[in-house]
Each structure stands twice: as C-alpha cells, then as structure tokens.
Amino acid sequence: MNRKTIFVGLFCAAALVGCGDSEQSLSEKAGKVVGEGVTGFFSGVGSGVDEKMVVETELGEGATKAGLERTTSKASGMADSEKSFSVYLVAHKAFKGTLMAKAQNKDGQEVGRSKLEVDLKEGDADYQVFVFNSQMDSQLVHKYIIDTL
C-alpha cells in the first residue's frame, strides 16, 4: 500500500467522522482520526522491521545438556559494521565456558563461525553477541547453531 492510498483513506475516514453530531469541531475529529491512523501505520512498520531482524537459531546438544535455553535472537542490522547477531540465553545451571555459533546457509553448509566466552550463574539470563568475520555474507545465513566447545 503506498502513501497516497493511506492518506486518501485517512482523509475519507476523517471526513466521515466529521459528519456526526457532536460538540467536537470537524478539525478536532479529523486530527484524532488521522493521528490514530498514522500512529498505527508506524507501529506496523516497526513490528515488521522487528520480525525481519529475527534469525533462526538452534542450540546444539552440548549447550542443551549444559542447561542453556534460547528465547530470542536477532541480527544486528545493516547499521552494524560487524557481522553479528544477539541471542538471549537463560542458564538453568551455572555455565562457564566457550560457546561457538556456526552460521549455515539454506543447504546446511557452514559459512561462518564465532566463539564467545560465557559466564552465567544458575538462573542468570542475558543477551550474548556473536561477532563473525567481516567477510561473511550475512545474506547467505539461513540459521545459526550454538553449541559448547
């Protein structure tokens, strides 16, 4: 849907709202309708961007046995000069060690690796950021697999 269509729709809605009997002026009613429409439009854009940033991530057997759980993970975005993604990890058991994230393309081939030292106490949870080699093409990455070393 283009901007012209959105603004025409909002204008028509504002005009219809203005036809009813009320103590509010037409301009107040129109302003309210247009404001709500624009706010909804930008909220939709924001949620669409958030969904696009989510990356598929799995925990390997070692990470699962170590008591780690993953909730969400997102790519850092185009503004990021490094090739990285963040993952929110919950430690059901204390974990101190090295995690490795492997980036895979849609055919399951590895296209990048990143190691990260992690120190989480039992019950801790935090975002962990894996940084990859700058030569890795993030557009090729279909999913990340995180496991212990």
Description:
With 149 residues, this protein is an alpha+beta fold. It folds into 2 domains: 50 residues, no CATH class; 93 residues, Immunoglobulin-like (Sandwich). Helix content is 32%, strand content 38%. The protein contains 3 helices and 7 strands. Helix 1 runs antiparallel to helix 2. The longest helix has 28 residues. It starts with a helix and ends with a strand. About 7% of the residues have low confidence.
Name of the CATH first level of the largest domain = Mainly Beta
Total of DSSP H or I helical runs spanning 4+ residues = 3
Structural class by helix and strand composition:
alpha+beta
Largest sheet: 4 strands, mixed
Integer average pLDDT: 78
Query: Strand portion, in percent?
Result: 35-45%
N-to-C span: 48 Å
The tally of beta strands, per DSSP, is 7
Please give the radius of gyration in angstroms: 23 Å
Instruction: Based on the coordinates given, report the CATH architecture of the largest domain.
Output: Sandwich
Tell me roughly what share of residues is in helical segments: 25-40%
What is the number of independent domains? 2
Instruction: Give the ordered list of helices and strands.
Output: HHEHEEEEEE
Spatial shape = globular
Biggest sheet: strands side by side, in what order? 1-7-4-5
Q: Indicate the CATH topology of the largest domain.
A: Immunoglobulin-like
Q: Low-confidence spans: pLDDT under 50, at least 5 residues?
A: 41-50
Any key phrases for this structure?
alpha+beta, Immunoglobulin-like, 3-stranded antiparallel beta sheet, 7 strands, 149 residues, 2 domains, 4-stranded mixed beta sheet
